[in-house]
């Protein structure tokens, strides 16, 4: 339930801010005396829909560092950090991407990758993961995160979110206008309270539906990243072992800003909103012949 609430709250906040900015710039003039100006509404929806998601992508690295307390390894201070950097470099070379920044953060077993560009990304692992997994298992997890970067998952997820935000904004105003016209006694009147209330309700409802689509893509993308790790390591066994160990360890939660790019996350009761499939399904997918 928390994820749903945060999703709705975030989208409302972004749309509210963008509405103010676009109003100041004069881009919100899609309501006219003759009705809706559809091209202007579409332009407004595109700008409002993509600005927030693109901005989030561009600041994803500093936000991830700040929200998790991840410390980038500038100069390895021990053998573990040295091994981490060398392993990430090896996997990045195999995947054909630039060397990501490597970071460590305090917490239970988890890891994530983020960044707007394939050649300027961040890979971070937790102290709990390093303490409770073998190096072969940690390498598999790193391979999973490198696969996310190589697959361009961060950019793809941003584009999907932008498209869905656009439809949410566009359709909510279409429905709002239709409801307001149906309730209005004088069709020449400017949109009233019915329009405003309907738009707000539709944005919440459509936003929740959009989040299900984003979550579905995220779950699909996890299977691809697992397969990517298997490819980078020359076989699925290490990734299967890592997932099996995660299944028996304490559940770890990442901040919402990077949760979709973590290695472990439970969907809980609201499975339609889970960004990760159950670990059992991921292990079974790796066991199937390809």
Structure description:
This protein has 290 residues and is an alpha+beta fold. The chain has one domain. It is built from ten helices and six strands, in the order αββααβαβββαααααα. The protein has helices at residues 2-25, 38-58, 60-68, 79-95, 127-132, 135-150, 153-183, 193-233, 237-247, 279-287, and strands at residues 31-32, 35-36, 71-72, 101-105, 111-114, 122-126. The strands form two sheets. Strands 3-4-6-5 form a four-stranded mixed β-sheet, sandwiched between helices. A two-stranded antiparallel ribbon has the order 1-2. A hairpin with a 7-residue loop joins β5 and β6 (122-126). α2 (38-58) packs antiparallel against α7 (153-183), α4 (79-95) crosses α6 (135-150) and α7 packs antiparallel against α8.
Key features?
single chain, alpha+beta, two-stranded antiparallel sheet, 290 residues, four-stranded mixed beta sheet
């Amino acid at each position: 339930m928390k994820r749903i609430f945060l999703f709705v709250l975030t989208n409302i906040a972004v749309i509210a801010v963008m509405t103010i900015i676009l109003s100041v710039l004069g881009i919100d003039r899609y309501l006219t005396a003759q009705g809706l100006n559809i091209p202007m509404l579409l332009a407004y929806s595109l700008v409002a829909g993509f600005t927030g998601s693109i901005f989030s992508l561009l600041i994803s690295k500093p936000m991830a560092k700040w929200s998790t307390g991840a410390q980038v390894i500038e100069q390895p201070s021990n053998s573990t950090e040295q091994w981490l950097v060398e392993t990430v470099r090896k996997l990045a070379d195999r995947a054909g991407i630039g060397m990501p920044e490597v970071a460590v953060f305090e917490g239970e077993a988890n890891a994530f990758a983020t960044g707007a560009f394939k050649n300027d990304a961040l890979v971070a692992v937790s102290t709990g993961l390093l303490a409770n997994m073998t190096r072969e298992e940690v390498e598999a997890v790193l391979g999973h995160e490198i696969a996310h970067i190589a697959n361009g998952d961060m950019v793809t997820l941003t584009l999907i979110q932008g498209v869905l935000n656009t439809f949410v904004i566009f359709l909510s105003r279409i429905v709002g206008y239709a409801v307001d016209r149906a309730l209005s006694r004088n069709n020449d009147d400017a949109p009233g309270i019915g329009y405003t209330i309907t738009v707000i309700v539709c944005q919440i409802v459509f936003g929740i539906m959009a989040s299900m689509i984003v979550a579905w893509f995220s779950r699909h993308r996890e299977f691809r990243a697992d397969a990517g790790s298997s490819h980078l390591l020359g076989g699925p066994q290490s990734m299967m072992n890592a997932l099996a160990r995660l299944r028996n360890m304490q559940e770890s939660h990442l901040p919402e800003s990077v949760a979709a790019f973590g290695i472990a996350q439970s969907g809980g009761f609201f499975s339609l909103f889970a960004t990760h499939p159950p670990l059992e399904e991921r292990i079974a997918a790796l066991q199937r012949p390809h």
